Amino acid sequence: MLSIVEHDLGTPGRDSAQLVTLSIDGQEVTVPAGTSVMRAAALSDVKIPKLCATELLEAFGSCRLCLVQIEGMKGLPASCTTPVAPGMKVTTQNKQLADIRRGVMELYISDHPLDCLTCPANGHCELQDMAGAVGLREVRYGYAGANHLDAPKDESNPYFTFDASKCIVCSRCVRACDEQQGTLALTIQNRGFDSTVSASQNVSFMDSECVSCGACVQACPTATLSENTLIDMGQAEHSITTTCAYCGVGCSFRAEMKGEEVVRMVPNLDGHANHGHSCVKGRFAIGYATHADRIVKPMIRAKISDPWKEVTWEEAIAHAASELKRIQAKYGRDSIGAITSSRCSNEETYLVQKLVRAGFGNNNVDTCARVCHSPTGYGLKNTLGESAGTQNFDSVMKADVILVIGANPTDGHPVFASQMKRRLRQGAKLIVADPRRIDLVRTPHIAAEQHLKLMPGTNVALINSLAHVVVTEGLVKEEFVRERCEVPSFEKWRDFVSQEINSPESMQAVTGVPAADVRAAARLYATCGNGAIYYGLGVTEHSQGSTMVMGIANLAMATGNIGREGVGVNPLRGQNNVQGSCDMGSFPHEFPGYRHVSDDTVRHTFEGAWGVTLRNEPGLRIPNMFEAALDGEFKALYIEGEDIAQSDPNTQHVTAALTSMECIIVQDLFLNESAKFAHVFFPGSSFLEKDGTFTNAERRISRVRKVMKPKSGYADWEITQLLSNAVGYPMNYTHPSEIMDEIARLTPTFTGVSYARIDELESIQWPCNAEHPEGTPTMHIGEFVRGKGKFLVTEYVPTAEKVNARYPLILTTGRILSQYNVGAQTRRTENNRWHSEDLLEIHPHDAEERGIVEGDWVGIESRAGDTVMRARVTERVQPGVVYTTFHFPDSGANVITTENSDWATNCPEYKVTAIQATRVSQPSEWQKRFREFSETQESLLKSADVMFVAK
Ligand code: SF4
Ligand code: SF4
Ligand code: SF4
Ligand code: FES
Predict the structure, then answer these.
(1) What is the distance, to the nearest Å, from the Cα of residue 951 to the centroid of all Cα atoms in its chain?
(2) Ligand 3 center to residue 249 CA distance, Å?
(3) What are 374-392's pLDDT values in tens digits?
């Protein structure tokens, strides 16, 4: 159903450079070749009636409502399926056309309930609009004949309803699921009058392959598929464009509102990252923002065994500031610090690092990107010269071969995955390197040429053997290397990778991947045209995470696959603002724009702007903060939007560190796991309650716009500002746009960025400056940011985390479509209907050996700890490897993960933990303690009579 502000041009645009001029109703129109007559008409404000056509989908030509007359052409062609031609003369309105259109509408309406006044689509129904447009006044066939008016509703999906009685079988939903989403969950069953839309093999939506992306709901011209919120609340009255706060795709949405209530989220057709598409999280899972668990009043307590006390904002800020000052006076300037989050906006993150550097007087600031993509920053900076991905998402449409390494786009980055699948269905080749059979390996109409099923922890061995094939089989793009790269570094790398020890045959025993498959994959990537690499946390979260990122950059440079559309090195960022939080200087060693704190010129610039003397030595990283806390040297921590007690590895180590501190300040929506160890709680605001910007995986800066007032009274940036003022470092921003203006003044890659400019361009990919006033979709064109590309030798060093008789299996972790990260948001939505607990995936052989069957409770023990979760016996994992997600605190996936980390950045080695799995009948000791502690903390919260958000 159309959104309240959308004008649908009927068929997708074409970007041909060749222009065609035609005449429509006597008016001259010029459009790109390939454009449909319908779209050409719509562009010149001539409205042709339509039902089965929409701008989101290729034309289908089934409803026959859009017929037109074209001079010299026989019959009455459908304008949606007819492309324009030079000199064409089109008539869109005459008596003959009007009679036919009325006849078509009569047939539709004779089998459609006439309950418009009580229908959720009333006023926004295309069928209703078309009845009006064609001047339908009577239905000669009556309503007494055979019809579908009693067809049952499918209400199985928690977010939308399928009311078959209203279906006009236009198949827009089926095509949306096929073309836009790529799930192919819907079909039209039967023929003629008996045609009906069916999910999978005539099962309910919930029991089908449907992933609840909502594309079919958006495409439906009637109320057949409607959002439940729309059914309950009625049509919205206004809408505000904002950006999804979940993953690094950064989809643009219009929040359709009634007053301060969200009626529905509609993906924005003009969104440059998503082009009108979405996934189940961004479109539907926003209920957490008004969930009863939200805390909207500040609270303090002296000890974590005390009940919380609700206080005013003044008291909370004053108490937090006095504690921070007391601790610094007693234990020294370096005894406090802060952790910011990739869920926060750029402006919020910028303020937290400014508070730490200028207000606390140290560099003890870090971000959760430490535990996900810090190796990306390190690896890409050192090879290509910039800590960011090289392309925009649309670039994938020009890729000929796509290499996905350690990423699971259909679950982690669903909207980009749909775009990638579209390209793969068009014929691009796919190589997947992953220990597990992710959905992309085989999905409707897509099959990977190669699935390199490597053992966890052997990425570097694999990338070296791929490089070995490229170098030894003469597949290097010599000219590119000679002109664009540091030749001595290339020669050193070439000599290294061509050693026999790096050959696929030698590395086969390490990686477990047959040498022939590695050779075939390397040849395909190097020779098949544009080769694009997409990678995720399966690359970075390793003891050699940074090495692997450098290995990927080496391979792309050697094959000339960088510096133009269709190629590149593309880190798929997990959270909404991972890129932005890194850009904003939230690492302890870097100012905004990735400039080291020891760089005197840069530091003096910030000192001048901020009016303070700044430290020239890096501060503590998150793991160093924990160590220092356990050593009694680090005593206070301000955490904004991050839940380290659940997301960081070796939970027991983290909680011991948290327990040892004297003042923990948590700013969040909920009493999360870290807040259970806190002394001050600042109620945070959801993305719906504040202004700001997020930067997605393509370096795209998009606006987040306030659609409702902050429930706690303050947006997050205001809370940081209040705290800064209270600790004695004044900040006086009146709007986040002023923070962005300061970022732009101080950061060379952002000098052209402002809210006004973003509003004008919709979004901007940095660098955006005098050289690139409209931003930079593709980086490293003509020259690398660092000048010449640098090859680095990437020797494979096996992880210290070894399997042995006691811990014979390797556990690796990942995420699932319906849940997000630690689950704080998605667990508080109906998304739990798809995934209500973390499960341990185990191969049938390993399960059988242990007497484990599907659904059994399994005890998982590692060198760090133990936990229990239910088994899912599946061949998605290979023998010797088990897998789980980490969305539920109680499952304690991070109780098992160890403190091993990347040599360069300390990014934890989440992806490789040696474990034993055994059938058990009760929770682990840790789980028992965890549940007891959580119950105590919940009761300490309840006894405070804290005000929650009203339902
Ligand atoms: S919600 Fe998405 S996946 Fe489900 S049927 Fe509709 S388009 Fe297909
Ligand atoms: S459900 Fe909607 S989109 Fe699908 S065929 Fe019926 S009317 Fe068309
Ligand atoms: S793909 Fe990511 S950004 Fe887009 S709607 Fe889903 S969670 Fe939000
Ligand atoms: S809109 Fe053209 S045939 Fe339906």
Answers:
(1) 28
(2) 6
(3) 889 899 999 999 888 999 9
- The dihedral over CA atoms of 340, 341, 347, 348, expressed in degrees to the nearest 10, equals -60
- Taking alpha carbons only, the member of 6, 7, 53 closest to residue 256 is 6
Rg (CA), the chain: 29
Return the residue whose CA atom lies nearest to atom 3 of ligand 4: 61
Specify the pTM: 0.93
How far apart are alpha carbons 262 and 318 in whole angstroms? 34
- Residue 217 to residue 248: CA distance in whole angstroms: 24
**Residue of 180, 183, 244 best suited for mutating to test ligand 3, as the one with most atoms within 8 Å of CB:** 244
**β-pair partners for 269:** none
DSSP-H helix ranges across 819-917: 844-849, 893-896
Residues in the chain, how many? Answer: 951
Q: Are residues 341 and 368 in contact, defined by beta-carbon separation less than 8 angstroms?
A: yes
Ligand nearest to the CA of 51: 4
Give the pLDDT score at 360: 97
Residue among 333, 332, 352 at smallest CA distance from 342: 352
Substitution candidate for ligand 1 out of 159, 167, 183, 421 with most atoms within 8 A of CB: 183
Half-sphere exposure of 362 (CA within 13 A, CB side): 20
Residue 394 CB contacts under 8 Å (≥ 6 apart), including other chains: 272, 419, 777
**Tokens read off for 138:** 């009577």
Q: What are 900-932's pLDDT values in tens digits?
A: 888 888 887 888 999 999 999 999 998 999 999
Write out pLDDT tens, residues 458-470.
Answer: 999 999 999 999 9
Q: Tens of pLDDT along 82-131?
A: 999 999 999 999 999 999 999 988 888 877 888 888 888 888 888 888 88
Integer Cα distance of 592 and 749 in angstroms: 10
Q: What residue type is 809 in one-letter code?
A: L
Q: Return the closest-CA partner of residue 567 out of 391, 428, 699, 429.
A: 391
Strand-pairing partners, residue 450, are 431
Find the residues whose C-beta lies inside 6 A of ligand 3: 244, 246-247, 249-251, 274, 278-279, 281-282, 414-415
Dihedral over Cα of 131, 132, 134, 140: its sign: positive
Alpha carbon distance 860, 940 (integer Å)? 31
CA of 71 to the centre of ligand 4 (A): 19
Q: Among all ligands shown, which has an atom nearest to the Cα of 63? A: 4
Nearest ligand by distance to the CA of 37: 4
CA-based torsion, 47, 53, 57, 59: positive or negative: negative
Return the SS3 of 747: coil
φ, ψ of residue 130 in degrees (nearest 5): -70, -35
Hey, which bits of 767-808 come out as E strands?
none
Residue with tokens 């003009």: 270
d(CA 197, ligand 2 centre) in Å:
7
Distance CA 171, CA 518 (A): 42
Cα distance between residue 80 and residue 42, in whole Å = 11
Cβ neighbourhood burial of 620 (10 Å; 0-12, 13-18, 19+): buried
